[in-house]
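Most newcomers find our protein records easier to grasp once they have seen one. Read left to right, the backbone structure tokens trace the chain's path through space. Nothing more is needed to start thinking about how sequence determines fold. An example says more than a description, so a record of this kind follows:
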Amino acid sequence: MQSGILRALGAYLIWSLFPIYFKALQAIPPQEVLLHRMAWSVLFLFAILLVRRNWKWLWSALQDPTTLKTFSLSALLISANWYVYIWAVQENRVVDASLGYFINPLFNVLLGVFLLRERLRPVQWTAIALAAAGVLWLTVKAGQLPWIALSLAATFGTYGLIRKTAHLGAQEGLMVETALLFPFATALLAWLAATGQSGFVNEGWHYRSLLILAGPLTVIPLLLYASGARRIPYSLMGILQYVTPTVQFMLGVFLWHEPFNQTKLVGFSFIWLGLALYTAESLITSQLRKKPC
């Protein structure tokens, strides 16, 4: 179990430091960073599959219409999620992005209710109401929806739901998604290079190295997460997941000094209280179910 905790924690810590990585790429437009993330991820994954000699399934998966439809949708969702996140970091909106991943667990619960017909207990509804109150507060005070947070939560939550019901594992699913995106990504990258707009070509080896690093930085935490999830209880994974938005929130406020006034504090506090209530109720319920009657 200890190795599972370390692997899961390693994944969440890598994800939590993504803002530092994307900040280092501020000279590269977010859309180009996204394209490189797509391209280098599939190349890195394919190298892993070759080493493991576990690539023969890929051709049959890409020929299956159901698999293509499912993973085309998941590829679009994860691409949108990646783009919004990269843009938010480069635009100094790390705190707003962290809010999306604080909201995400409760958004997943709502997806379960409305799409999977799951039933919630009263305390869970209270937790969601508190989070909704926080979002409403931020919306009224700011004069607009916290669209970055909601976009990240919606795209990643829906993506997770699709992947939960898909028949491929984490590594295989990501391989299919990136394989579907690869032709478009490489074609657009070639067009940028041909028209003199490519940061990869124009900005020197420092940026080229960072862009190539997008492949392993995307794949490695996913593999750690998948490996850790198989070794520890799901409830513990639910607690560990808050490492990522917490660290990112602290980076935004204390390292980059993004604005976090009293208005934001009130809104975030409602959401944090809802998360704490939901997590505590889930843990207590899980422990009670384990007790012998």
In short: The mean pLDDT is 89. Residues 262-290 form the longest helix (29 residues). DSSP finds 15 helices and no strands in the chain.
